[in-house]
Amino acid sequence: MTKMSFTIFYLSRESNDWKKRNVYNVGNESIQGVDEMAVLVARKIRKTYGKRTLKQEVIKGIDLEVHEGEFVGIMGPSGSGKTTLLNVLCSIDFPTEGIVEINGKPLKKMKERDLAKFRREHLGFIFQEYNLLDTLTVKENILLPLSISKVPKKVAEKRLAMLVEYLGIADILNKYPNEISGGQKQRTSAARALIAEPSIVFADEPTGALDSKAATALLANLENINKERGATIMMVTHDPVAASFCSRVLFLKDGQIYTELYKGDKTRQAFFQDILNTQKVLGGDGYDIN
Amino acid sequence: MTLTSLVLRSMKKNVKHYYLYFFALIFSVTLCFSFVTIQYNPSVIEALEASGTATAGFESITYVLYFILIFFILYANQIFMKRRSKEIGLYQLIGMTKGFVFRLLLIENVVLFSLAAGIGMVLGFVASRFFAMILMKLMKNDAIVSLSFSMMAFSKSLIIFALLLAVVMIQIFIMIRKASLLSLFNAEKKADERVKKFSPFHMMMGIVGICLIAYGYYDSTRLFSVEGATTNNLLVNMLLILGSSILGTYLFFRYSVALIMNLIRKSKKGYLKITDVLGVTTIMHRMKGNASSLTLITVLTGLAVGIMTLSYISYYSSEADAKRLSPFDYILFDNKGIEFLNQLEAEGIEYEKTTFHLSMVNVKMSDLFNLDEKDAGYININQDAISPVVPLSDYKAINPEARLNDGETIITSYVDILSELLPLESGKKIRIHAGEKNYSLFIKDVREDEFFLSVLASASSPVLIVTDELFDEIQKNQNPEISTQIGINLVNEKDHEKAETLYKNLRERKIIEYDYQKTYKEYYDGNIALNGMTIFVTGFLGMAFLLTTGSILYFKQMGEAEDERESYTILRKIGFSNGELMRGIYVKQLFNFGMPLMIGLLHSYFAVKSGWWLFGSEMVTPMIIIILFYVSMYMVFGILSVFYYKKIVKEAL
Ligand SMILES: Nc1ncnc2c1ncn2[C@@H]1O[C@H](COP(=O)(O)OP(=O)(O)OP(=O)(O)O)[C@@H](O)[C@H]1O
Ligand SMILES: [Mg+2]
């Protein structure tokens, strides 16, 4: 795959200074205009855990860009740093080095309070487990991100109705999390992640705790929302089937991007085969090929 | 792995949990040991003997203290064990027998108890001097308190502590025996079962709870009224009030709170604020598990504040009470011991002298109290009350403004237990008779806070002021036991000591009218010693209540914070800041600490209000002081728990 890169200079809104930004465009995708900004840009990300003596570099310099409407999957062996990367990208954690920008906003400079607000308004999250507050009903859980926002109730109500329709959870709105199934829980999380119409949704193994049927349903929902509503999604997964729903899959190995695959016009089946093949090429270091 | 190495390892790992339990243990030993040591402190014993105050109060309170501490330790141990249930389950899962686990915990507890006993006794020993000093200060005794170790106190405390260890081990034994593996793994979750739906039954119980509390309060206001006291048995009534307020409190916490919270929540139609999420909904869901402990804390708070306030009222009223018994520094009757005045002059002691002539008349009770026979119950209104009369010209020394026409009277010095029950009204007629003669007098005025006759002269009856003419007439027909009272006040404070000796000398030589006639200072000292000891003992008890309830709340909140850690993680991740989460937690803490405190204070307010006048003459100031003191101490625990939450929230992401 050919990668073509060029550099633009732009006036940073925050620092009021000229900054360099690399824009990567990839051959078999439609050419991105220079003015069309990526939703998420990560530059030279490094993440080191531990103190001086027991230093462990988990992310070893990653450059990454996600465009609007993309559904990006991240795959890699256990311990390769997928969760770490995601946490760094979504502002839950900070990189030791490097810059993350979302909607052109560098996260590093923000204060905790602004960062929280930013997350609430611009980002959506689905985690593997412990997604919902069990003292709240499904509806209350979904509406949580709107609790301080200025979205009018009418609009919120409309969004809610549409989302629960898409996700097929309309009739469990008044139940508590301990009264619904794991798949329903994850779909509830998806609804919560989308209710504030975020610029990008981050999902860390959202299907990890589901059986294949529930997982497929959730993924189909996500794909649907990605295609029809243009939601940008970034998902970490172990599962090649799950990854085959994505439009692009990044392969992580030893804290670096090993390679990436584009779905393009391929069918899901064909893309799934590609993913399996890539995993094989990557070798048997911890990949669970099933 | 040997048993001991396993114990050591698990203790090391559990230090985080242990320190709490350990603190509770040390705290208990300190309180217990210092309280027992005080009773054996020679300076204290001397002071108590000198004032003629019995140590019986001390001893009975000691048992109450033991009881509180045992309860507290059992509670702390229960919380502690619940948190470790997973670990205990794990031991069994890898094949240890229950007996082995029990032995493991036994060793742990013996180590903990021994350490706590050692540290606690050292602390308690030091604290005992401090407490003894407070006691002496309260009794206004200047004696210097020495630090003295009592073998008796030591062995007593050791026995109690050994007993405590045994009880705790029994508790652990039962817990281990009862617990299945599954329940051990779920103990943390099971503890606070969650309410789901609200049935009409819950709603009704919620309303019943509030009604019961209201009834208890209402009933308490009439507990000591004449109607209340006569239509019902006092004791039955008291138990009724107690029962209905405690049950009401429980139902309030168990149902009413959830009911109210659910209404608030329903009104938001799904759009919850972060304060609702962390305040309203968590409180609501935890009420089932928390209701009984919150009730207990409420009741203990009410009890503690109640008894402390009542004993502070007594203490606060020591001076006023002494003044009522002996309105002047020294009092002489019928000129007996009049040489006291000469002796004072000889010593160059300045004094002021007020003389009252007095006589006795019979007053019809039914006239005084405006009661018919049915209402009066145990008061026989057909009886005559015997009241002293004082001529207006003498009374002017007290109230220079007083004026009387023929056939008028002023009733004064009427504050007593009866005055609350049966207030006197001015503007009506009363019939009195002296010897064979009857008079009808119009009550011009009723003055309550005015005392000038010694209790020996007035027998605590209200005093009638009459015109000088009428007094002379009465005097002729009546031959009272005491016909004059001379009140002597010293001008200079410094002369008191000398005057006191002179007076006592005369009294010993039986020159004073009654050999049991006390001076103002003797009354005052006696009151202060007795009330000082009482307030010390009840204050100590109140502190024990406060510290135990506060600690229990704090422990519980620590547990809740741990349980909710995951929720905080989720909330922080999806974009709520530290500060926003803390705001919700403040609401929750305000509720958890504020509610039992407020209701407890309300309980104690009504309890104290119903009968405070049995204890003294001033309610508001002592009550406010005690409440301020209690609330500020209590707040420390609230603040501690907020800090704990702060830590957890901060770590959540
Ligand atoms: N908080 C932390 N402190 C120290 N090391 C950490 C921390 N979090 C993760 N690591 C280490 O970083 C490495 C990558 O962890 P990460 O969770 O990102 O892996 P992953 O790819 O998500 O694995 P999995 O597929 O099992 O979830 C691991 O070796 C882990 O031990
Ligand atoms: Mg992971």
Any overview of this molecule?
The complex is a heterodimer of chains A (about 290) and B (about 650). Chain A is built from eight helices and twelve strands. Chain A is α/β, with parallel strands linked by helices and about 290 residues long. Chain A has one domain: Rossmann fold. In chain A, helix 4 runs antiparallel to helix 5. Chain B has 25 helices and nine strands. In chain B, the strands form two sheets. A six-stranded mixed beta barrel of chain B has the order 3-4-8-5-7-6. A three-stranded antiparallel beta sheet of chain B has the order 1-9-2, with no helix packed on it. In chain B, strand 6 and strand 7 form a beta hairpin. The two termini of chain B are about 35 Å apart. At the A-B interface, helix 2, strand 8 and helix 3 of A face helix 12, helix 23 and helix 24 of B. Adenosine-5'-triphosphate binds next to helix 1 of chain A.
What's the quick description here?
The complex is a heterodimer of chains A (290) and B (653). Chain A has helices at residues 82-89, 112-122, 138-143, 153-167, 182-195, 212-229, 240-243, 268-282; strands at residues 3-11, 18-26, 40-49, 56-66, 71-75, 97-102, 105-106, 123-126, 200-204, 233-236, 248-253, 256-262.
Which key features would you list for this structure?
heterodimer, A: 290 residues, alpha/beta, Rossmann fold, six-stranded mixed β-sheet, four-stranded antiparallel β-sheet, 12 strands, 31% helix, globular, disordered N terminus, B: 653 residues, alpha+beta, 3 domains, six-stranded mixed β-barrel, three-stranded antiparallel β-sheet, 25 helices, 9% strand, elongated, binds adenosine-5'-triphosphate, binds magnesium ion, transport (chain B), ABC-4_Integral_Memb_Prot (chain B), ABC_permease_BceB-typ (chain B), cell membrane (chain B)
